[in-house]
Amino acid sequence: VLLRLFFSCRSSAKLVAPLGCLVSRQKHTLPDLPYDYAALEPHINAEIMQLHHSKHHAAYVNNLNVAEEKYKEALAKGDVTTQVSLQPALKFNGGGHINHTIFWTNLSPNGGGEPKGELMEAIKRDFGSFANFKEKLTAVSVGVQGSGWGWLGYNKEQGRLQIAACANQDPLQGTTGLIPLLGIDVWEHAYYLQYKNVRPDYLKAIWNVINWENVSSRYATCKK
């Protein structure tokens, strides 16, 4: 399935329509951060945030645009071999763009603490307590081999919250079907300059800047 479906063609019922979207598509752009690079200090320092956003995320956006342009050309030529060969680049860079766009909004200088309302009730229902949930998501994120993400997602079919890990930049919804609510980036570029190779220290710190209002808003939206 084309990564492009995530962006502008999600409501299309037939494959013909989303493919057509590629012909006159608009290029993806790097979203602005809703806070300054230094706003999450001391938990995530400004140098990490600047490199992570302006270099790493920007590279995913640029490479996604290149891959989609090549796909459009291959589509016009009926070159199925090239279309297939571009799928890994679309998945990796499209996933990187999707994941980071969520990640920036999941963080806030006014974050931390615990969620409230319906999200908190759902966490207690599905994990027993907030402490249990936090422990499980931390453990899953620490345990990611190499690079990847730890996620809190919503299983719409079962009507419950689930924790999952994704390798590399695999997007949660596109690879598991879970709707992403909270993502924790455990690629080394997300923490190495400050926490070196001690991923658990980074994961301990990141809970201080989790934007529960954003996560709760995502939960309310996906339940509709």
Descriptive terms for the model:
nitration; 10% strand; 10 helices; Helix Hairpins; manganese ion binding; mitochondrion; disordered N terminus; mainly alpha; minor pseudopilin epsh fold; 224 residues; 2 domains; Mn/Fe_SOD; manganese
Give your account of this protein's structure.
Its cofactor is Mn(2+). It catalyses: 2 superoxide + 2 H(+) = H2O2 + O2. Mn(2+) binds at residues 52, 100, 185, 189. Destroys superoxide anion radicals which are normally produced within the cells and which are toxic to biological systems. Residues 115-218 form the Manganese/iron superoxide dismutase C-terminal domain. This protein has helices spanning 16-23, 46-77, 80-85, 87-106, 117-127, 130-142, 172-176, 192-195, 199-206, 212-222; strands at residues 148-155, 160-167, 179-185. The chain has 2 domains: 46-106, Fe,Mn superoxide dismutase (SOD) domain (Helix Hairpins); 117-223, minor pseudopilin epsh fold (3-Layer(bab) Sandwich). With 224 residues, it is mainly α. The model is unreliable at 1-23 (pLDDT under 50). It has a 3-stranded antiparallel β-sheet with strand order 2-1-3.
